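Deliverable D5.2: sample structural annotation.
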Amino acid sequence: MMADRIIPLFAFLAAAGIFFGYVHPAWTGVIAETKASIEADNQALEASSAYSAKQNQLASARSAIDPANLERLSVFLPDSVDNVGLILDLNALAARSGIVLSNVDVTTDTASTNAPARSATPAAKVDPVGSVDLSLSAVGTYSSLQTFLVGVEKSARILEVRDLGVTGSDTGVYSYRMKIRLFWLR
């Protein structure tokens, strides 16, 4: 009669020992870590799929844009400063306008002054457009300066005349000092 009570009690204690000694630690330890790792991998896979879908969507949208328009956009807002190309373009414009450029210098990189106000999102803190100032000296008539400035205004590239100084003359040929800001895409 005692054996009828001891065997079930021993079986219960053995089951409790197996549960607390092996099953529970394995279930809450290794198995829980594996489940968490699987969940993290599934989230990364979903994010990767969403990124790939967005990348494909943007690639198809870009391929739908006319290549000539993309070329015009890259001239309008290039992805590098290209000082030499700009100076050559300005020199050719000056020659067509009838003024002579001299003393062309890159004065400052004003990229930090174009930074937007502080924002809550980190991506909004970086301004995608940088700028550089060019300091120019030129000699020519007033009408040739007007023609040059109209050419700068109609340039395919974003240029901004920041400062213009004129030194007078009795001959009708003036000396000019200009500061032109050019913009580029970072």
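Annotation notes: Helices lie at 2-28, 30-63, 67-76, 83-97, 142-153. The chain has two domains: 2-63, 75-185.
The annotation will be released with the project's public dataset once the embargo ends.
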